[in-house]
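RECORD TYPE: protein structure
NAME: UBP-type zinc finger domain-containing protein
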Amino acid sequence: MTLDAEGTIVSARAGLNGQAPRCEHVDVLRAVEHGPLECKECLSAGRTWTRLLVCLTCGWVACSDDSRGGHAKAHYQETDHPVAGVVEPASTWRWCYVHRRTV
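PREDICTED:
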């Protein structure tokens, strides 16, 4: 067993083959139903979006960071809900705002 400087077991925090550490935020996600497939903030401002993300904590749907509004990130900043997924059929892509990477 190998420990790091903080006393954490290295194998417990490391990914396979030297990949980034596992995101513990995905371990606490539960199934949520998402809201309407629209970004309410963009609609009220008369804007369009590039793609939609759903908050995997509460189901809030908002535009992605590459959209003009970036409302999904704003939702994270307001709520601290860490993980969002893309609203596309059969997609498994998820983004952790805390770790700033896909998970």
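COMMENT: The radius of gyration is 16 Å.
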